[in-house]
Amino acid sequence: MNEKNLILFSAMLKPEWIDFTIQNFIQINESKRLNDKLNEYLKDQISSTITLQKTVSQLQRTAGFLSPLSKKDFMKIYNEMVQISPDKRIKHRLILLFESSEFIKDVILSINKLCLLGVNGIRANQIYEYVTAKYGERAGLIPRRIRYVLQTLSNLMIIENKNRKWYVIRPELLEEIVEKDYSLM
C-alpha cells in the first residue's frame, strides 16, 4: 500500500451542496461554524450520521476550510458563479473538484484517457485499473471511492450511467478541464 497517495474522497456530492458550501465558506471564518452550518443544512437530506459526517468532511475538502485552494481562489470562482444560473455552474464545480483532490483528478484523467482511446461506455473496473497503478490495492477502498466520484460527476451532469456503463455527456467540458489543468493555486 502506498501511504503517500491519499484517497481523500469519502462521499458522493450534489451540485447544490457544493454551491451552499462555497457560499458559506466565503461568509464564515471558522471551520467548526461551517461544519455546524453544513450539518444543519444536510441533516434532513442524509439519514445516516456516518454518511453525514463523511459528506460534511468531503464538502470541507472540496469547497471549505480543508481545501487546498486559497480563499482568494474561492472568491474568484464564487464571484463568477453568482453571475450565472445554477444550471450553468457545471464547469466551476468541476474545476473545484478537479483542483481539490488528487484522487478526483486521477479519476477524471482516467475517464478522459479512456475516451481518447475510443472507449464508449466506461466500466468502473476500467477506471480502477488506471487508478490502482498509482494508489495500489486497498481492499475494496478504491472501488468504493471511484463510485463516489462517478456518482458525483453524474450529479454534476458530466457523465451518466446506462446498463452499468458510464457515458460522458459533456466531453467538451471534460476535455477543457483536463487540457487547461486549472491550477488555481
- Main beta-sheet strand count, sense and barrel state: 2 strands, antiparallel
| Structural shape | globular
β-sheet strand percentage: under 5%
Topology order in helix (H) and strand (E) letters: HHHHHHHHEEH
* Integer tally of domains: 1
Structure summary, number of beta strands: 2
Outline the low-pLDDT stretches: none
Give the neighbour order of strands across the main sheet: 1-2
> End-to-end span in angstroms?
29 Å
Mean pLDDT: 91
Structural class: mainly alpha
The radius of gyration is: 16 Å
Binned, the helix content reads 55-70%
Contiguous helical run count = 9
Can you describe what's shown?
- The protein has about 180 residues and is mainly alpha-helical.
- The chain has one domain (about 15-180).
- Helix content is about 60%, strand content about 5%.
- It contains 9 helices and 2 strands.
- Strands 1-2 form a two-stranded antiparallel ribbon.
- Strand 1 and strand 2 (about 165-170) form a beta hairpin.
- Helix 6 crosses helix 7 (about 125-135).
- The longest helix has 15 residues, at about 50-65.
- It starts with 14 loop residues before the first helix and ends in a 5-residue tail after the last helix.
- The model has no long low-confidence stretch (mean pLDDT about 90).
